[in-house]
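Quick illustration, no need to memorize.
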Amino acid sequence: MNWSGLYTAENRPAPEEISAFIGNDLWREMNDFLQRTYGVEPQMAYSGCSAQPGWNVKYKKGGKSLCTLYPMEGGFIALVVIGAREEAEAGLLMPLCSGYTQELFRQTPFSAGGRWLMMNVTGKEVLEDAKNLIKLRVKPKQ
């Protein structure tokens, strides 16, 4: 069953149910990274958006979005928005990223105040790319 059908707006999943549905340690690693690096807690939200409906997990720091995570079977989508301020630095980072992330960056137009990267995280390489792009948005404390 798909995510939005399994957990409707009235049926909010528990964190362990999200992990079980995804079935991939990358989910835990990303959440641990965000919480440890930025000292933030996840915020569950339900979206009826046709592009990626269902429950998602948002992370914000100081009112600024770090990312939104959308559970999928076997992985998750990390939405990372690269704003005008980060655009040049993200361009410099791209040669160090996976081929997948480089192509996604090239194919995603800059609009609505940023480049909205919907990163399909199913492997370690893309997970690291997502973490590095998030670090551009909000610099971690040393």
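The CA atoms of residues 19 and 25 lie 8 Å apart.
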